[in-house]
UniProtKB/TrEMBL annotation:
Pfam families the record matches: 5-FTHF_cyc-lig
Biological source species: Salegentibacter chungangensis
Keywords: ATP-binding, Ligase, Magnesium, Metal-binding, Nucleotide-binding
Protein name: 5-formyltetrahydrofolate cyclo-ligase
Recorded GO MF terms: 5-formyltetrahydrofolate cyclo-ligase activity
Cofactor: Mg(2+)
Amino acid sequence: MKKTDLRKKYKNLRLKLSKEDIEHKSLDIANNLLKLPIWEYDFYHLFLSISEQKEVDTEFVLHILQGKDKNVVVPKTDIENHKLINFLLTDSTAIKKNRWNIPEPVEGIEIPSDKIDVVFVPLLAFDKTGHRIGYGKGFYDQFLAGCKPNVIKIGLSFFEAEEKIKEKFDSDVILDYCISPSRVYSFKN
């Protein structure tokens, strides 16, 4: 199946999820996340969910990170320069939805990409080799390319892995893990 067809398929599957489905599945994903060996690091990049797109609710992940006293970094989209700018999430960080309904920090303490240890990556679909399909704009592939080489990349998905995504590009960044409500996928060799 082509990437455009997979995007359509998984957007449609998400649309069928109820608010309760999203809450339960997101909680299961957060609980499965606790099984990963990732808790000794300092800086964790977390996307803030677009509820209108029925994304995984990252509020549960945020509570885990805060409970473990981690530095949480959230992205702001720089559409003109086609990149993500990362800000430290603090008690005083104001969050506002942009014109695409993406919740973002208004301003704050900017954190360089190469300081981030763990990145939670939004996606629509992924396969058993760790390739992912996002919304197709390449923001996360570009952002991840600017991170340190050993940054840990974790996808969050309501659905299980596709067997294989056939369309791949050299700029695609492979995940280290993907968490679904029922299991943890590891792509590390």
